């Protein structure tokens, strides 16, 4: 098995924000959404179910950066505020956020960098954990769930084993216990992806990488997952424990130079090989908490031999069955495909993604997943967001969209979950549309707000277009959930290509930042009809 490249190049525009970590237990109302259920989650056979027993399917996305030198989410340097990015994810239908981190981001005194403080003034001076708190709280207000992913021991690179000399197993486990305690009363956070992509190192028989079922406590990932998972459940018994696979069950690479292929091991993607989990299952101290979480990728990450098979893509389901799908099909445990992604640069990649989505299944009966990634700066996959961190890669989204189960909270919120509301909610008179404005932030020389417009007519607005006016001297800074432009004192928010129609009774929330004295939008209209 060849090694998969490390994803996530660092970006420019680095603004340091020094602060001290604050260890607090955060609470929020239980999440209630069509895709993510009510209360905490557990497993039942190959299903994830909520506190009422209803089947839940996680259809999410990865937003990385906290595992890098920035120690916080990438894209905070862009012109799209962080809430706007979460809004777009929810509105597209992603009901879960998988958030990678490194232990460096959890250290006392860790600082978050790469933040555009003009666009995100509410993040200035926040530690990585404090920013994480805000993202979790806001995602929860949208009806989304959050999975925390220990991606790397340090921000330097991915590691084959879950520990290093600098970050021993004790630190790995103690940091997980800290996070479990921090979010112990917040059902938005549903679980722990224990370590990202354990994989083989060294040439057999001198293997030094992560094995599965070999019995060596220093290398057996299955045993380590039990130790960490049980430690977490001792603090927070309601969490799901997400366990990835390895690459080669032996933990070592085959000697390709000896010419003897009879003993060559069948390997897969880093973290993607769960072929031994049926024989050597992960045993947790709390029943119904285990979710297996493999990874799978396309040619843009590495050109695996099966992409060249004469029966491609008909060969793919058998490959997925062998590595991880059998666990779902035999009703052993749920599958949550934690990472999969592609640039779509190779025509075979589109075929791969289309077939993979079909294999995962549709509706609540399908396997759960979190796509890699929201970020456009993932070097070997690109993202759902384009380079502006605002518009969407429609080619990818159109393949994934039919399988998404949107959070019911993906529309407007009733109030901010972090920070004060700096202005009242202002309803406008009822007509063919109505409008509600909410001021979400303000600072010297600028402000941030959300305008929600509801179609009260009997026909869809397709494409929809919202206009409003501002007093002279107020200028647009940035906008999201629409293409927002300004001409004189008139602002136009045009429907994005990924959501052109506004059905009767449906609402759209346009977010923006502006320069000047805070002012509510005036003369709001939907497709020319005043609200």
UniProtKB/TrEMBL annotation:
Gene3D superfamilies from the UniProt entry: 2.60.40.290, Glycosidases
Annotated CBM2 domain residues: 426-531
Catalytic reaction annotation: Endohydrolysis of (1->4)-beta-D-glucosidic linkages in cellulose, lichenin and cereal beta-D-glucans
Signal peptide: 1-33
PROSITE patterns tied to this protein: CBM2 (PS51173), GLYCOSYL_HYDROL_F5 (PS00659)
EC number(s) given by UniProt: 3.2.1.4
Comp. bias (Low complexity): 414-425
UniProt cross-references to PANTHER family, sorted A to Z: ENDOGLUCANASE, MAJOR EXTRACELLULAR ENDOGLUCANASE
Name of the molecule in the record: Endoglucanase
Species of origin: Asanoa ishikariensis
């Amino acid at each position: 098995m060849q090694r998969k490249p490390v994803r996530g190049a660092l970006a420019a525009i680095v603004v340091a924000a020094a602060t001290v970590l604050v260890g607090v237990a955060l609470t929020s109302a239980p999440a209630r959404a069509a895709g993510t259920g009510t209360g905490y989650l557990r497993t039942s056979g190959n299903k994830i179910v909520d506190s009422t027993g209803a089947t839940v399917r996680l259809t999410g996305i990865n937003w990385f950066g906290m595992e890098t030198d920035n120690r916080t989410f990438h894209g905070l340097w862009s012109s799209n505020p962080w809430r706007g990015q979460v809004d777009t994810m929810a509105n597209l239908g992603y009901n879960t956020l998988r958030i990678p981190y490194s232990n460096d981001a959890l250290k006392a005194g860790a600082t978050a960098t790469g933040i555009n403080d003009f666009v995100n003034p509410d993040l200035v001076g926040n530690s990585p954990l404090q920013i994480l708190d805000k993202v979790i709280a806001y995602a929860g207000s949208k009806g989304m769930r959050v999975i925390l992913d220990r991606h790397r021991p340090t921000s330097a690179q991915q590691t084959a084993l879950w520990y290093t000399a600098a970050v021993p197993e004790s630190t790995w486990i103690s940091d997980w216990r800290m996070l479990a305690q921090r979010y112990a009363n917040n059902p938005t956070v549903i679980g722990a992806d224990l370590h990202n992509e354990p994989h083989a190192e060294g040439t057999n028989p001198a293997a030094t990488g992560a094995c599965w079922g070999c019995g060596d406590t220093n290398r057996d990932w299955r045993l380590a997952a039990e130790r960490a998972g049980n430690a977490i459940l001792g603090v927070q018994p309601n969490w799901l424990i997400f366990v990835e696979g390895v690459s080669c069950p032996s933990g070592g690479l085959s000697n390709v130079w000896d010419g003897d292929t009879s003993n060559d091991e069948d390997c897969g993607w880093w973290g993607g090989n769960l072929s031994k989990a049926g024989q050597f299952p992960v045993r947790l101290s709390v029943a119904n908490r285990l979710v297996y979480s493999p990874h799978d990728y396309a040619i843009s990450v590495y050109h695996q031999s099966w992409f060249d098979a004469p029966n491609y893509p008909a060969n793919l389901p058998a490959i997925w069955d062998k590595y991880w799908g059998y666990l779902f099909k035999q009703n052993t445990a749920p599958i949550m495909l934690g990472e999969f992604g592609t640039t779509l640069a190779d025509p075979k990649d589109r075929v791969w993604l289309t077939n993979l989505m079909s294999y995962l299944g549709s509706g609540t009966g399908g396997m759960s997943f979190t796509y890699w990634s929201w970020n456009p700066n993932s070097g070997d996959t690109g993202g759902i967001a384009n380079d502006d961190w605002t518009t969407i890669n429609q080619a990818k989204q159109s393949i994934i969209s039919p399988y998404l189960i949107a959070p019911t909270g993906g529309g407007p919120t009733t109030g901010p979950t972090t920070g004060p509301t700096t202005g009242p909610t202002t309803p406008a008179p009822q007509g063919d549309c109505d409008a509600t404005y909410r001021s979400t932030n303000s600072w010297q020389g600028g402000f941030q707000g959300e305008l929600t417009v509801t179609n009260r007519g009997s026909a869809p607005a397709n494409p929809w277009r919202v206009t409003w006016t501002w007093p002279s001297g107020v200028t647009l800074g940035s906008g999201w959930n629409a293409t927002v432009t300004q001409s004189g004192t008139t602002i136009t928010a045009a429907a994005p290509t990924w959501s052109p129609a506004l059905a009767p009774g449906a609402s759209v929330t346009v977010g923006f930042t502006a320069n000047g004295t805070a002012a509510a939008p005036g003369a709001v209209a939907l497709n020319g009809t005043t609200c």
